[in-house]
């Protein structure tokens, strides 16, 4: 499993691990029942402390994205499509709230904000097509 | 499972310095970073653990076994890299290692040879012809080749070039992967342990001033800027405070507590950022408990 962890971020290593594994699960890149590296293997491969990984895994367990089997390690949980959808939406709401509030404080109307969102999605769509 | 090491009320007194009473322990599988200014007693602590210094009083155990200078069998379980690298100067690095090997039942010549290659150490050279950095490499190999359960590393990378330093980091992460080892690591170069360490202990004037999980520390400490039309802030969680007019900046040792209090005061324009382990260490060692207020 390749993750992109960096010290040069305002996000803690623990949150980077949680966010990146969560994204891989929700996008289907990590299929149900895929086994995750053990905590110690993960720590070795990504140069993070054991406790950092342990806490990240615990957070993913609490979110129901992974489960553990005694003596066997950690596995990606089976999620129904609508559950995934709900979680992704919830996640979006949490991450998008602060910049939206900031934009509103700076005087943008909801119309401005929606236009901006649409613009970004259109650009991303174009880019994806160009890459094909 | 016994602790990797444990000090209980350890005291060592010198004419001009007293270490302790020190209470400190470490669980197997964990890495404890040991941080403190020059002369705070880090090396003395490590010398006590490595059996190089006899404490005045207190109990010291390694893997549940009391340190007994007359019966050094416990030394098989420790690997110590310190400030002084003692070798037979007229012998090659290789011969020095072969000599050491006979004292350790778990010594691996294969591991030693591989490590020398990874660290790029010329093993055929005489010890006296080795550079500072290469002597440090030889000391590292000498300390790790017998598969110790507890690594006592006192500024182990002093003199190492960045590539050897990174390679050494890799080796430590690999050694920790089986979960059976522990590392007690003292350094002034905090980025070196900022990812490896699970916990940190801060030593000042021979006393532990703080022992904490590294992630707890980096989660809790924040730099916070905000607007507020008053000047005096006396929060227990605020370690330093400066302001220009109504613009304030504080360093908080407990982000959530500070934020709660700030919101009660009705602050505006709140922004916050995380601090590196390095920045936090400076604040702690400058005297975390007294609040420094700078008027500007």
How does this model look, in words?
- The complex is a heterodimer of chains A (132) and B (296).
- By secondary structure, chain A is mainly α.
- Chain A has five helices and two strands.
- Chain A has a two-stranded antiparallel sheet with strand order 1-2.
- Chain B has a six-stranded mixed beta sheet, sandwiched between helices.
- In chain B, 28% of the residues lie in helices and 30% in strands.
- In chain B, strand 1 and strand 2 form a beta hairpin.
- Chain B has eight helices and 15 strands.
- The C terminus of chain B is likely disordered.
State the share of residues found in helices of chain B, binned by percent.
Answer: 25-40%
| Distance, first to last CA of chain B | 54 Å
Structural class of chain A: mainly alpha
The order of strands across the largest sheet of chain A is: 1-2
Residue windows where pLDDT falls under 50 for at least 5 positions of chain B: 288-296
User: How large is the share of residues in beta strands of chain A?
Assistant: 5-15%
User: What is the CA-CA span between the terminal residues of chain A?
Assistant: 25 Å
Shape of chain A: globular
Give the number of DSSP strands of chain B.
15
Order of helices and strands of chain A: HHHEEHH
Q: Give the C-alpha Rg of chain B.
A: 22 Å
Can you summarize the main beta sheet of chain A? 2 strands, antiparallel
What is the strand tally of chain A?
Answer: 2
- Report the structural category of chain B: alpha/beta
Oligomer: heterodimer
